[in-house]
Amino acid sequence: MDAEELSSVPGYEGRIEYLGDKKNDSTLRITDLRLSDSARYRFRFITSGEKFHGSPVSLTVTDLQVKITTSLFSSWVTLTCSTTCTLIGNPTYIWYNNGHKVKEDTSSLYSDYISDADSYSCAVKYHEDLHSPAVCVRGQNCWSVTYPHQGVCALKGSRVDISCTYDSGDATITSSLWFSHKQSDSWRDELIPEDLTTDPGYAGRVEYVGEKESGRSTLRITDLTEEDSAEYKFIFNTETSGWGYSFPGTTLTVTGLQVRIKGPTNIIEGKCLCLFCESICFLQDNPSYIWYKNRQRLIRNETKYLYLKPVSSEDTGRYSCAVENHEDLPSPEETLTVTYKPRSTSVSVSPSGEIVEGSSVTLTCSSDANPPVDKYTWYKKNVASPKASGQSYSITNISSEDCGEYYCEAQNEVGAKISKLVPVKVLLEGSSVTLTCSSDANPPVDKYTWYKKNVTSPKASGQSYSITNISSEDRGEYYYKPRNTSVSVSPSGEIVEGSSVTLTCSSDANPPVDKYTWYKKNVTSPKASGQSYSITNIISEDSGEYYCEAENKYGRLNSSSMFVDVQYPAAVFPWVPVMGVGAVLTAGALLVTIYCYMKR
Fold it and tell me: 2.60.40.420, 1.10.3300.10, 2.60.40.10, 3.10.180.10: which CATH number matches 145-254?
């Protein structure tokens, strides 16, 4: 299995740092060491595809323990501040008696006449916050204050409980309190700690909980701020003495969350990426994490890592994270931009269709890319060298030599993509071209008329229009105005008073109809506009002949009339059809069936 880069290994995040110039020397620094960091570490570098490994270096992480050697005939005791391995750098040891600093020496041994109530602990200088557990020298009934956590990490805006257990032996405790050295500037006597609950900076945010439980005290701080980061200690007093405060307590670190992207914030589509919900310390109780993209929760992750394997353009967005049950305390958003090479590259031609010799044509290249396309190159099939550069390529005074298939290449810093081939056809002057009009109609179309844009009179009639001996003057747009305009009714058949009916207008036009208007015969003003006209809750007064007018920018055409006959609903007597009349409307009319009814 290939070696994994250490900073990407879960558990080392935020604790790894590389020192040196990374060319001739390299130093690995690991902070906030844990017993689980004990391992063999190796350095690797790669050149020209080859990998070189150094010899492994063993790291042993240890903690401090106090070992006791007693005498059977006296109170003389020898204490040893021991470790499971030999510490480098000839450290200086510090000894604490009942929470008071009593000795500092390069020797790990401490000997003295010790009373039964004494407890001792040791630490290494400059690492006083990493002291050994306090031990009772003789028996188990001695003075002590024990903190279950040397360090506590909490979210800004949340609350935290800092606790300890304590024992005064046979002595009666007269008072106890929590304090912080960072507040010593405001103490009346800098040598006498003051109760944190009386400090104005903590007003309304500090309370003691669990005081009724003998031998245990818990300090609760709410609405945490980064300024609350400090060391907190507990002391008690008896009638004769008290537990000293030089002994280390619990260090609180207040942190916010931060999204860190392991890699560039502009990443190429298809690569792999990891987002890390980072804090300056490690939150207790192994919380579940929540991830958001553009402020919408992502369901798939409950860890501090968000893996995107592989990254796609849809992953572009603003990311933030939060801890479960603290969703109101999210991190600031971090923007991720996914870059990708051009795609959906295509060419459009203007004017479209066949081009007359001597005229001009413009090819335009379009492409989706991030970052945007910074280079367009034009090619002609079977021609090696490029024809032009730029998003548009114009061919003026076009000739038969310009006939062929063209394509473009769109390129950005990520990559390139070519379009499909687009044909360019050139009609030579003197040649012929035929335009053909097709239309679906019943009965079939019996008249076609051709027009040229900006020319008033028709150019020709008939389904096909041929231009022979073509010249540059024949360039332009050809069209036909609305025709075969007709009306249909739904539902068909009998229309009973109180029901609804919809009239629909259809027309063949180029360009398509852009306006429909409805009229009732012998009524001057229009009844409605739009391709359909609905009459709801119809009454007998709505009976009559209706027609529509279809219009585009080249003209308008009225349909034939449609007769709407509204019948009274049957009361008691059934209706029996006695006669049917059918009519077929040609050239724009509609097939209509009219029934007459008689009572019996």
Answer: 2.60.40.10
